[in-house]
Amino acid sequence: MRMFFEEIGLAVGAAEKSAMGARHRAAHGSLVAEELVELVKFGNAYRTLFERVFLRLLGYEGEYVDRTTIGHPRRPLRTLLVVCERERLTNLRRNASSANA
Questions:
Q1: Are 90 and 15 in contact (CB under 8 A)?
Q2: Global pTM exceeds 0.90
Q3: Residues 6+ apart with CB under 8 A from 55
Q4: Which among 67, 88, 90, 101 is least buried, having the fewest CB atoms inside 10 angstroms?
Q5: What percent of the chain has pLDDT over 90?
Q6: 66 touches 33 (CB < 8 A)
């Protein structure tokens, strides 16, 4: 996949990679009920990544709608998604703290 994104000139960061990984877990049935809220967030990131890829393949260079952020702001096409990754890390820390308490 890395080569594909490089070929079309689209930067992919940690949030996009996490979204692709979450899609893989859901598609192959390795999710637990507690991960459903996170799955919805990653689903939005995955959809946004698909839209960015499609726009890039069309030669579009403008703004896209970021469905990972509340309010769905417009962002430059080459902007990386970061919101989902921050939320994922926060949730992981929160879950680790709860388990240790």
A1: no
A2: no
A3: 64, 77
A4: 101
A5: 23
A6: no
